[in-house]
C-alpha cells in the first residue's frame, strides 16, 4: 500500500515521518505542540532556576559550569520555539511574559501535576536551596533529561527530531558537569551528608517527571509516532543509571 492511500495513523505507527506543518492532522498537531511546549517551558524554567544559584558556586570552574547550563538551556528552548512558530504559536510571549523563576514552597507536594500557567515538568516548580542542592538536582534531572531526550529524538516529526538530536550531546554534558560537581562535594563528610539530604528530597520529585506507569495516553502517542518507550521503562532506566552513579560516589 502506498503512503498516499495508507491512513495517516497507520503510516505513523509503522515508523512514517512528517516533515511540514502543512501535512499534519489536527490531533497530531495538538499533541506535538503540547510536547514542544513542555520542553520549551521546562528548559526556560530550568535555566532561570540555575541562574539564581550561579553566585552560590564555590569557585570559578563551578560558576562557569552553572553559567553554561543557564545559557545552553535557554538556547535549546529557542531552537524548539522556532519550530512551534512554524505552527503559528505566539513565540513572543516566551521572551518576557512569564515568571520562569517562580517556584512553589519547598514543602509543596504536587506529584506530576502542572502548575502556574505553563507546561514545565512538575519538578521545576520546586526551589533550589544553595549550591549542593542545585548540584544534586542537576545530577538527577540531568540524567532524566538525557533519557527523555533520547526518547523524543525518535519522534515522527522530523524537523523536531533533528533539533533534539543536536541538543542531546549538550544536555549529556550538563549531566556530566553535575557528576563532576557532586564528586567534589562528596569528598568531605559534611558534603556527603548534605548531598544525601538533597538526594532524599529531589529523587522522588525527579522520578515523578517520567509520568504515570501504565499511562493510557502513551498508547495514543505511540500510534502517532510521538512516543516509543513506556514511562515505566524510561523510569527504570533512570533509576539504574542513578544508582550506578551514586554507588561510584558512595552516596547510595
UniProtKB/TrEMBL annotation:
- Give the matching SUPFAM superfamilies: Ferritin-like (SSF47240)
Q: Where is the signal peptide?
A: none
Where on the tree of life does the source sit, at the highest rank? Bacteria
The Gene Ontology biological process annotation of the record reads: phenylacetate catabolic process
Q: Which GO terms describe its cellular component?
A: cytosol
Matching entries from PANTHER family are given as: 1,2-PHENYLACETYL-COA EPOXIDASE, SUBUNIT C, PHENYLACETIC ACID DEGRADATION PROTEIN PAA
Q: What is this protein called?
A: 1,2-phenylacetyl-CoA epoxidase catalytic subunit
Species of origin reads Sinorhizobium americanum
Amino acid at each position: 500500500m502506498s503512503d498516499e492511500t495508507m491512513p495517516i495513523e497507520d503510516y505513523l505507527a509503522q515508523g512514517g515521518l512528517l516533515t511540514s506543518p502543512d501535512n499534519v492532522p489536527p490531533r497530531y498537531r495538538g499533541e506535538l505542540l503540547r510536547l514542544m511546549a513542555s520542553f520549551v517551558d521546562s528548559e526556560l524554567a530550568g535555566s532561570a532556576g540555575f541562574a539564581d544559584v550561579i553566585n552560590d558556586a564555590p569557585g570559578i570552574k563551578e560558576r562557569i559550569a552553572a553559567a553554561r547550563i543557564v545559557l545552553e538551556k535557554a538556547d535549546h528552548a529557542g531552537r524548539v520555539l522556532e519550530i512551534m512558530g512554524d505552527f503559528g504559536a505566539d513565540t513572543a510571549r516566551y521572551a518576557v511574559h512569564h515568571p520562569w523563576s517562580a517556584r512553589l514552597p519547598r514543602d509543596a507536594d504536587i506529584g506530576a501535576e502542572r502548575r502556574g500557567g505553563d507546561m514545565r515538568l512538575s519538578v521545576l516548580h520546586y526551589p533550589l536551596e544553595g549550591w549542593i542542592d542545585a548540584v544534586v538536582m542537576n545530577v538527577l534531572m540531568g540524567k532524566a533529561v538525557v533519557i527523555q531526550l533520547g526518547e523524543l529524538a525518535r519522534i515522527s516529526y522530523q524537523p523536531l527530531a533533528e533539533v533534539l538530536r543536536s541538543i542531546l550531546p549538550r544536555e549529556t554534558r550538563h549531566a556530566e558537569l553535575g557528576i563532576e560537581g557532586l564528586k567534589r562535594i562528596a569528598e568531605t563528610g559534611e558534603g556527603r551528608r548534605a548531598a544525601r539530604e538533597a538526594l532524599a528530597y529531589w529523587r522522588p520529585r525527579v522520578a515523578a517527571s517520567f509520568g504515570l506507569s501504565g499511562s493510557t495516553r502513551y498508547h495514543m502517542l505511540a500510534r502517532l509516532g510521538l512516543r516509543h518507550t513506556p514511562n515505566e521503562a524510561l523510569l527504570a532506566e533512570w533509576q539504574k543509571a542513578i544508582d550506578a552513579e551514586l554507588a561510584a560516589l558512595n552516596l547510595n
